[in-house]
Amino acid sequence: MTEDIRGFAGVDPRTGRDVERIGAETSPADLDDLCARAAVAARELAGLARAGRARLLRSMARSLEERRADLVAVADRETALGEQRLNGELTRTCYQLEVFAEVAEDGAYLEATIDHAGETPMGPRPDLRRMLVPLGPVAVFGASNFPFAFSVPGGDTASALSAGCPVIAKVHEAHPATSVLSHEALVAGARAAGVTPDVINLVWGREAGVGLVGHPAVQAVGFTGSLGAGRTLFDVASSRPSPIPFYGELGALNTLVVCPEAAASRGEEIAAGLAASFTLGVGQFCTKPGMALLPTGAHGEAIRRSLAEHVGALPTGFMLSERTADAYRRGVETLRGMDGVRTLAGGKETGEGGGWTGTPLLLHADAGAVTGALLEECFGPVLVTVEYTSEEHLLRLLETFGPALTGTVHADAADGDLSARLLAQLSGTVGRVVWNGFPTGVAVAWGMHHGGPYPATTSALHTSVGTTAIRRWLRPISLQNVPQDLLPDELRDAPAASTGLVRRVDGVLSHSE
Amino acid sequence: MTEDIRGFAGVDPRTGRDVERIGAETSPADLDDLCARAAVAARELAGLARAGRARLLRSMARSLEERRADLVAVADRETALGEQRLNGELTRTCYQLEVFAEVAEDGAYLEATIDHAGETPMGPRPDLRRMLVPLGPVAVFGASNFPFAFSVPGGDTASALSAGCPVIAKVHEAHPATSVLSHEALVAGARAAGVTPDVINLVWGREAGVGLVGHPAVQAVGFTGSLGAGRTLFDVASSRPSPIPFYGELGALNTLVVCPEAAASRGEEIAAGLAASFTLGVGQFCTKPGMALLPTGAHGEAIRRSLAEHVGALPTGFMLSERTADAYRRGVETLRGMDGVRTLAGGKETGEGGGWTGTPLLLHADAGAVTGALLEECFGPVLVTVEYTSEEHLLRLLETFGPALTGTVHADAADGDLSARLLAQLSGTVGRVVWNGFPTGVAVAWGMHHGGPYPATTSALHTSVGTTAIRRWLRPISLQNVPQDLLPDELRDAPAASTGLVRRVDGVLSHSE
């Protein structure tokens, strides 16, 4: 841990040494002040029409883009993720802001609904108009493994601002300098769009983070991180005098199944893809496949052998922080110490060491040994293979795994009915089913769901990636018999600025004229 | 309290005497069994296509209709709500089932989304298809004041079944015989539709209710009732090893504002409507207006005088249960004992008494005295009037009231800018703003929102009335690169049974062909 009362260090994972000290724990008085300013900003942001919020988001994206070189350099020094990955992640971050500008302009997220007064089987009904409105100030807790895309300028921030909710972001101790630079970029973007900089603010330190979740001005929380920290903050949010929604994305085991015929026809290709997927970014993805169920016999054995070759050839990498590297080391020790678990490849340090390293590791577990730690996520580049002996055995095994962000199936047409059975079973427990692919890589799209039942997330109803992430920051209101001139534009019979908006009018979905 | 270890009494509020003993506390073993059966029923219900669930709901509505005379007679004996009101409520209950059959057929609630594989600024994107799927078994806790529409056969049950979620309903001790009869009707409806009766089951007793909320098989809870009981169960749901959403509708103060010009032009009409609204059903509505803000001067004074005349002429009524009547008596005592509060009319028992009576009461409070109990709901036929001296004073007063299910404004065009300011302020804190009307009466419609921020409900994002109530029982999944023949019909490029379904395909909302 690098937190102390004097401030927060930016640390280089490649050396483990502090680079600089920036920021200090936010005091309770400062937190109150930030929250009060966010409450004022909420009124300004809600008052901007959707077009105004779209302009704000695009201005922020431009501002990040202008600071690309600095942002990537600082983030690389703090996370060791590498310039290529970080450039890609920053591109994604800007793209997310652009997408949520489009979501605001599209406006269907408002669920605008008009029921004109009329007769029903229940008697006369008044004029009723419903739409979604912003919840108010939102707290965002970013992730160590995505210093841009799931942190200060990330998807939670983009979707909250799009909805009309100001953001107070807790600085992640694994990338404080990146957070400060990102914040400066977003503030510059807000100023360029003529919007108050208080739409985005930062708080520092663990206590201030807990205080933020408990603060009466805060109306919802977005969180990406570990199950332990997420559950602690969920409990704070739920036990407030006024409970608020807590959207925690907590990671998962992410089981991958290879069906017999797929193993026979393209085992080599699956092994190569799987090895790349579970070691991508030194295994530091919440969608990392952590468990592979392989068929018994020669084809499953060939996949394991191929996986072992790939893993044996991979170098040790640098992990995000001391805490991450320690947790990986301890997690791997636990797995290797379990009865019925043996090492197939990897796990030996390569290179010079010195920083916070993590080494790819391939384990195999007897099917009967799959309990305890083998059912939980181990964050880092480790994959466990298990052998199934029949379709029934495979489906029983799958039942022992809890909910997850993803479940992956490799199946050929020749695998027959097994495909449908696997799809049905996985659909009941995971947020996204991946077919003949790999779960790492979460597209920002209308059709994306990045979530799942607990403990994958703390709210099975919502996603943290994709356009529908905006729904987390909105609540409905109905306006009954309110005169036309007082209605929000989107709910008027003849809207002025909302041409083409999809609304449900007297029960029928249509585009406004 | 009529609960004891021997069973549950059906009691007559007009006499306070037990009529019969029916039902016994559900044992933990029986609860396990019910939950296991609900989990099996969940698979059957999810497997019914939307058309099958629509048939189920309509069959249940018919079955209730066939038992109308018995249902109304038993409910009247248990609740003293009167045959006219209960006939109307049963009509509404059947209508709700019909409406949720239409919602299932409409299918837009699925939010079906198709993103074909393609290029994006982020590189190639896989084929992604998203829709909502049922959460699984749901617990329903009905309300004392609506033995049909918000109880065993009510809106929570209708929306959950429409979504594909089986229901386990906790029997309300204020109407056990009504619950049993309603359950029999729903089961008969299920059988007639060829669906397992385990889509709806009952549990009895407080401990079994708590056990139900904590049961691993239960995936969400719908609750209508008091803040105290609701918060207790919310805490149980949130502190489970696997937390689940708890949708509690907890009632509210429901402030009503009369603007100066409206008071001048139609004070008499407003007074008559308000007196009828707050005493409707002996004031036992969660949308009962409990606080009226009137302008200072002659027009406000005339409204108070008129209200007092109406209230003075109203008889004592019978309340739903001993607990309700006791709570009303205690609540009224507290209000009348506060400094700055005086009685304008009512509060004296009329009629023979003997049962659980509640007497309409009109109070006036000095604006400076509006604190504590005056800011909280008092369930029953009591209204407090407060005088405001200026627009600024009115808006400051409004700020002191917490979130609520509704806020009502009576305003004329001549009230000018005040209307917009009131609408903006109320939109920030209530679920439904009623204009020149009264909040009692909650239409079942696409445009209805019956909810609001805590403590009006435990989930500001959702409604318990209206078609969007279905969203509470659903979670999204994404299917990535899944072959066409394995996809649910609604997500296929060319659906077979989903003609006309509204979907978002490659970003554009359209009807499927």
Automatic annotation (TrEMBL), chains A, B:
Keywords noted in UniProt: Oxidoreductase
Alphabetized SUPFAM superfamilies for the sequence: ALDH-like (SSF53720)
InterPro entries listed in its UniProt record: Ald_DH/histidinol_DH, Ald_DH_C, Ald_DH_N, Aldehyde_DH_dom, Aldehyde_DH_Superfamily, ALDH_KGSADH
Every Aldehyde dehydrogenase domain range: 8-452
Gene3D superfamilies assigned to the protein according to its UniProt record, in alphabetical order: Aldehyde Dehydrogenase, Chain A, domain 1 (3.40.605.10), Aldehyde Dehydrogenase, Chain A, domain 2 (3.40.309.10)
Coiled-coil boundaries: none
Pfam family, one: Aldedh
A molecular function (GO) term: oxidoreductase activity, acting on the aldehyde or oxo group of donors, NAD or NADP as acceptor
Sequence intervals crossing the membrane: none
Name of the protein in question: NADP-dependent aldehyde dehydrogenase
Organism whose genome encodes this protein: Streptosporangium subroseum
